[in-house]
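lol ok so funny story. i was supposed to be doing the assay writeup but got distracted and ended up predicting the structure for this chain instead. priorities right. anyway since i did it might as well share w the group, maybe its usefull for someone
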Amino acid sequence: MDQARSTISKIFNGEPHSYTRFNLTQNMEGDNSQVEMKLSSDMDEEAGENGVGHHHSHNSDRKPYVAQKFGRSPKNICFMAAATLLIFIIGYFIGYLVHQKKQVEAASCVSSSTPPKEYVPDETGAAPLMDWDDVKKLLSQKLSASNFETAFSEFSSVNHRAGSPGDETLANKVAKKFKEYGMNFWTDEHYIKVQDPPVSGFNKFVFKGQEERPDGFLSYSANGKVMGAIMYAHYGRETDFMLLRDRNINLTGRVMLVKAGQISFAEKVANAAKMNASAVLIYSDDNAIGDTTQLFGHVHLGSGDPYTPGFPSVNHTQFPPVQSSGLPKILAQTITAGMATRILTKLGGQTEPQEWGGSNKLGEESDVITVEVNNVLVEKRINNVFGVIKGFVDEDRYLVIGAQRDAWGPGFATSTVGTSVLVELARSISDMVKNDEFKPRRSIVFASWSAGEYGSVGATEWLEGYLSSLSMKAFSYINLDGVVSGRNGFKVAGSPLMYSVIEGALTEVKTQSSSGLSLLNQYGKGNWELNVMEPLKMENAAYPFLAFSGIPSVSFRFTSDNAEYPYFGTLLDTREKLNSATSHQVPQMAEIAAQFAGHMALRLVHDHLLEMDLTKYDRIIRSHVAQINGKVMAVQKS
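and the output, tada:
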C-alpha cells in the first residue's frame, strides 16, 4: 500500500491526503446491507509534517467538524426533522403530478381515431404463427389436377435409367424448377457400381433341349453357369420352403422356379440360398402383363451400393475392398410367363401342396435345367438433386421429402408421378412462403433420388455420406415413390412415431368423391391401423432412412383393391396403363397424394412441438418384447 501511495504521489506531485476504504460485510442471514466507509489519512497513524496532520494532532479532544457546527441540541434536532418532512412532501407531490400526466396521455391515445393493433400471441423465439386452418387452406388452393397434367408432360421420359443421359436430363429439369421457385438448390454426385445385362453376350437357360434367352435381368446376381434339377417353390417364401422340406424333398443344388410377388426378389433368392439351392428363376403369373413381358430388378438384400457398404460412393474414393453381406452367392434370373409355362408343363414329380392352391408339379430329379448368367459390373455417375425451404426458427432441423427419378423403362407410376408430386409440393409451399407470409419453423429439404431401381442407391449413399449430421438434424422422411398405382385402396407404412401425424392427415384430407369423405372414412373402415397400415418393406426407399439412420419415416400409396400394380419392374409402366388402373383419374389421385404428403410435412414444420407419437412407439415395443419372451418361454418348455 505504501508503494502504491508513493507512486501516486510522484504522478500527481503531491501526497495523497486521504483515501476511502469500503468494507462490504455479510451477516449470517445473507444480508449485504452493512457497508462501512472509513476516511483515513497517513497522518492518522502518525503525526505528519503537513498542516492537516499537525492540526489533528493538537486537537484530539475536539469534536469532528460536523458535530461542532451542528450540535445535538433539541432546537437543531427539531429543525432537521422539519426539513426532512418538507422534502418528503415536495417529492410526493412531484411524483403524483407526473403520474397523472402519463394517465392523461395514455387516455388520449386510446380515444384517438387510430384503432390499436390486435394482440397476436407470439411463440417464444418464433416467427409470427399462422393459424393451422389457414395453412391447410393455402395448400389446398395451390394444388390442382391441371398443374399435375403439366408436370406429367414435363417429367415423362421413355428412357431414364440411372446414370443415363435421360436421367441427367430429368435431374437438370428438377434443378431448374427449384431455382425457378427461388429455392436454394444443389446436386450430390456419386460414382456407383451396378450390374447390367451383358452387352455382347446374353443370359440364358436350357431345359429339355430348348434354349431360352430372356432380356430381363436381376442386378447383383452371381455370375456363372450351373446345372441342377428344377423345383417349383411357389413364391419362394420361408414357409413355402418349409412345406417342401416337410415332404422330405432334397433341395440342395436345385434350381428354384418361383413367382414374383409377396416378398422382394432379393428375399426370394436369400431364402433359396438358405436351402442350398444353386439358382433361382423368377416369373410373373399376372395375366395383365402377358406371356412375353420381361422383368427387371435387383437381388441385393439391402440398399445402397453393395461394393461400398457403409461408405458413400463419391469421387472415385478408394475404400477397403469389401462387399455387402447381402450380395447373393447363387445365380438369379428373371424369365417371362411364357417361358415359365413351358417349363411347368414338362415337370414331373409330386403335386404342389394344397396350401398353394394350384395343381403344378413340383419337379423331380430328372428335370435338369442349365442356367447361365453373364451380367457385367459397370460404374455409373449419378446425381441426387436437392432444394430447400429454410425454416424461420429451427433452420438446422429439417424434414426430407424424396422421390425416385430413374426407372427401367417409362416408369410412369414408378417415378414420373412421384417426381411430379415432389416438384408441385416444392412449388406450392415455396409460393406460400413467398406470397402468403407462411413461415415454417423448420426447414424442408426436397430430394430427387437416382438409382432407386438398383435398391435405393442414391438415397442410401446420401445417408452414408452425411450420417453424423442427418441422425441429429433430420427428424422425418416422407417417401413419394409409387404413390399412385390405383384408386380403390390406400396403404401407409411408417414408423410408430409418425402415427399421430398419419392419423391427422387421414382425418383432414378429403377424397375426390362427391360425398367429400375423408381418407380415414373412405379407407379406414372403423380401424385405420388395421385396414390402412402395412409393414415397411426393405425395397421401400423409406426403409434405409428408418433402419440405417433411425429417422422416423413414412411411405404411402393408392392401390387397386389392395392389389399390387403389375407393371412395376417392367417396360409397360406407362401413362396408359396407369390410366386403366385409376379409371383415368391419375391427376386427381396425384393431387390427393400431394395433399396427404403436404399435410404431414406442413404439420411437422408448422407446430411448435413435433407431433411424435411416443406412446404408440412404447406400446409397440412392449408388444414385440412380450412376443419374443413368449417364444423364448415356449422353446425353454419344449
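Confidence is low (pLDDT under 50) at residues 1-70, 104-124. The first strand starts at residue 19 and ends at 25.
back to the writeup now i swear
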